[in-house]
Amino acid sequence: MDDSRDMFGDSPPWNDGEEDDAAPSAAELEAAGQSSMFGAPAPEPPEPQEVPEPTAAELEAAGQSAMFTAPAETSPTPAAASASPPAGTPSQPYRVLARKYRPQTFGELIGQEAMVQTLANAIKRDRLAHAFLMTGVRGVGKTSTARLIAKALNCIGLDGQGGPTIDPCGVCEPCRAIAEGRHIDVIEMDAASHTGVDDVREIIEAVRYAAVSARYKIYIIDEVHMLSRNAFNALLKTLEEPPAHVKFLFATTEVEKLPVTVLSRCQRFDLRRIPTPMLAEHFAKVCTNEGVGAEEEALAMVAAAAEGSVRDGLSILDQAIAHADLDGEGKVRAEKVRDMLGLSDKSVQRKLLGAILDGDGTQLLELVAHQFSLGVEPLAMMRGLMELAHRIAVAQVGGHADVPSAEEREAIEGWAKAMRAGQLHRLWQLLLKGHEEVKSAPDPLVAAQMALLRIMHASDMPDPGALVKKLEELASRAPAPDSTNGSGVAPSGAPSASAAAPSAVAPRWEALVDDVEHHGQPVAANVMRMQVRVVELAPGLLRYTQPPGFREDISAQLRAALSDATGERWQVERVNAEGVSTLVEQAEASKAADTQAVRSSPLVEATLAAFPGAELIEDDRPAAIGGGSRNWRR
Question: What are the pLDDT digits (tens) for 587-606?
């Protein structure tokens, strides 16, 4: 039974001779079982050490590394980790200028002085609105302004005791957290990707709770016009009466899409386009900070291409810096920027305009072909000429040209003095029409050539004002038509008014006839117009004769009509003498004289000579505008 000692608690034979203290204890056995079932317990963490808070650059570099850097196959050794990177290797990825030079204070926000002043006064007087709306074109600083307002409202100063200020310190914890986009109480939402009512419902539920560490809980909603109609309706009540600790900051490029109910609940700021000179000055400072040289004309081109947007301009400037020559000084030059943007050379623009004004078609076509071979689009040529015409017009009004180049200034001011205003405006209209034709033409080059040739041929044509003056001069030199045909008798057979009686009789008689008609006797007034040739007219006295063909005595009718119209007794006599033409005869004579004057004008004579069978057609209809009985001939 020696081989079964282990059944009765005796130790097995292979353990003979071992010490009793080698056997594991109960705690060790339990730990071994736990380890086999659940794995080895994690080692106790080391004592916590104070680690400095990472900066914004370190956080961004870590994020870029996590998103874009490929994981290493093997973990580096401590020695390799502590070794410095080789020379020439950047410590962090390149940040584009539009992000690097985003304004961090209101002092760095250019071109929006009115808005900054309004906010400063509101903060000083403690009259802060609960909702702000920033609107404007892209790249003028809407979202940056919203973040600056969040800083201004939550800044606590260097000592931690400060209040809202228009000049946030940028050093305190709220300022740094907001700048780095990690503040828990400043929530930034993109409405383009959160358009539904559920996204707004989350905001409505969250505004009930106070801010965790900041003075105000701020919601920045970018592109707010993208919210749906139901989302806007859900937000209205909270937007109208939010809690005291909540501020809403909206940014949009299409403010017309916002409901009026939302606009009425916000304090609106319209961020204006940045002027081109201010943009050029800002870009010059950026180039200085970057250690890059740039020509003034090149910066002016970049600023003009930005169209008032700082972000667009910085993106173009970034591209221009990369496009600059590396073998030289690395300077941003005007010709490089012009090639990059596909702009027409200003000197070539001036040559083009000179060829147009001089009527040199050969040189014009050669310049257009040369520019096209260099990659300049025909539409860009037309835009360049339109810009040049605009500068000439401004110089003509202001007296000087505001351009950086002395050569260009001299040329523009010379054209401003030499060209008439009408000629310049006609040039603009022709260029504008040519621009539209080139824009829609199947072959832009051919359309540009034809448009510029048309402008060249029309440049020496007189303007309408000069043409009218010329026609008036020709008409004044022509002999006056003789309405009496040299015999003292009008074409209708009536005697001439000037030969029969003084010219003062006709207006007085016409006034009497009008009085008779206005007193309700139109039949008598017509008889007076057609049958009465005045021989003598005085107060209460009328002596008259009648044209051939009228024999009826109308004296009694005239006497009654005149007495009723004037309230006086009249002596009316029919005599055999020469009198002034009747009013109807005078109207016919005047009409015949006008017709003869029209026929004798040089323009009509030339037209009738060119078209022998042509006739003058008179339109006796009343004028459409103004009413009355005046007739217009066409």
Answer: 888 888 888 887 777 777 77
In 3D space, the residue among 536, 474, 450 whose CA is nearest the CA of residue 501 turns out to be: 536
Residue 544, number of CB atoms within 10 A of its CB: 24
Quick check: 199 and 226 in contact, CB under 8 A?
A: no
**Domains in the chain with CATH codes:** 97-270 (3.40.50.300), 276-341 (1.10.8.60), 344-464 (1.20.272.10), 504-585 (3.30.300)
Could you tell me the two tokens for 471? 């026609």
Beta strand pairing status for 541-545 and 533-538? Answer: antiparallel
pLDDT of residue 81: 37
- Three-state secondary-structure class, residue 131: strand
For the beta carbon of residue 390, count every other beta carbon within 10 angstroms.
Answer: 13
- Specify the length of the chain in residues: 634
What percentage of residues in the chain have a pLDDT greater than 70?
A: 73
512-543 core/surface letters (b: 16 or more CB in 10 A; e: else): bbebbbeeebeebbebbbebbbbbebeeeebb
Question: Of 343, 261, 265, 360, nearest to 302 (Cα)?
Answer: 343
How many Å is the Cα radius of gyration of the chain? 47
Lowest mean pLDDT among 10-19, 224-233, 402-411: 10-19
Residues 59, 296: Cα–Cα separation, whole Å: 37
Write out the two tokens for 38.
């659940």
Beta-carbon contacts of 360 under 8 Å, excluding residues fewer than 6 positions away, are 456
What is the tens place of the pLDDT at every residue in 374-414? Answer: 888 899 889 989 988 988 888 888 877 776 666 777 888 88
Q: 21: which DSSP letter?
A: G
